[in-house]
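Module 6 notes. Inverse folding takes a fixed backbone as the condition and produces residue identities as the prediction. Think of it as a translation problem where the source language is geometry and the target language is the twenty amino acids. Below is one complete input and output pair. Work through it position by position during the lab.
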């Protein structure tokens, strides 16, 4: 009787342990959650199962995320970073490991198959830059803490009508590297790197305004020190900006001229002049 009782208790403990391990395994595989989606976007897991993505859905390590033409998607990563996926794009989350703190095991390895993304890095890669990279067919993008955009133009795509086939990387803030079999270049804010193929040296080129817009200097993007830095960390690219960035021939709008604002306080008091 005692033996049967102990066996039952043992089996219950074993079952609970298995459930806890399984739950932890599922949680460990979550790379981020969908924060915004417009249009049709899907995720395909390593087993080939396809699911439609909606706001709040989890995106897992090894998932391949695909956006339809005219669709866009934003993912908030578990390390605090963001990935905005442009229309008609495909990206695979090759490996994403983050325990909640920087302990040396964290990593974020992505593959951009086609189309474009904008990425604002989180905690992964802040201490060990080699723990974060974006691979394409022609190059590998590394970071030094950054806000950057990458496009992969493939033969026969809509983008191929406005830009040569290859990988493009543009930095908004921070710095990236672009590496091929022939060497590495560094890319600074408002610079664009281009790699036509894996066996060709990457090059710095003038910004292709069919793909990118010119960003204000990082020092001018906010008016206040720490508050500005905090606002920058939480930047998310919305679908309107994404569509504007995709528009052929797009460029930054001219800054309108500013003039003082006068407040009339009546005939007995002098007006107040407010400088914008």
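Target side of the pair, the amino acids:
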């Amino acid at each position: 009787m005692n033996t049967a009782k102990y066996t039952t208790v043992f089996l219950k403990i074993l079952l609970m342990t298995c459930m806890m391990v399984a739950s932890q395994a599922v949680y460990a595989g979550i790379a981020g959650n969908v924060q915004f989606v417009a249009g049709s976007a899907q995720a395909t897991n390593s087993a080939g199962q396809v699911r439609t993505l909606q706001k709040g859905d989890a995106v897992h390590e090894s998932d391949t995320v695909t956006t339809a033409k005219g669709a866009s998607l934003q993912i908030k990563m578990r390390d605090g970073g963001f990935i905005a996926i442009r229309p008609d794009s495909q990206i695979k989350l090759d490996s994403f490991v983050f325990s909640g703190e920087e302990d040396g095991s964290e990593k974020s390895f992505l593959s951009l198959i086609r189309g474009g993304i904008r990425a604002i890095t989180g905690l992964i890669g802040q201490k060990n830059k080699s723990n974060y990279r974006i691979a394409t067919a022609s190059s590998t993008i590394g970071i030094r803490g950054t806000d950057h955009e990458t496009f992969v133009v493939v033969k026969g795509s809509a983008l191929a009508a406005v830009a040569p086939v290859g990988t493009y990387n543009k930095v908004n803030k921070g710095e990236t590297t672009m590496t091929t079999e022939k060497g590495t270049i560094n890319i600074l804010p408002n610079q664009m790197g281009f790699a036509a193929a894996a066996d060709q040296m990457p090059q710095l080129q003038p910004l292709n305004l069919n793909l990118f817009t010119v960003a204000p200097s990082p020092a001018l993007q906010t008016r206040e020190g720490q508050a500005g830095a905090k606002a920058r960390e939480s930047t998310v690219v919305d679908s309107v900006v994404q569509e504007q960035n995709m528009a052929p021939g797009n460029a930054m709008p001219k800054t309108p001229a500013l003039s003082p604002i006068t407040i009339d306080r009546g005939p007995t008091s002098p007006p107040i002049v407010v400088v914008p």
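Reference fact for the lab report: Helices lie at 2-28, 225-233, 239-246.
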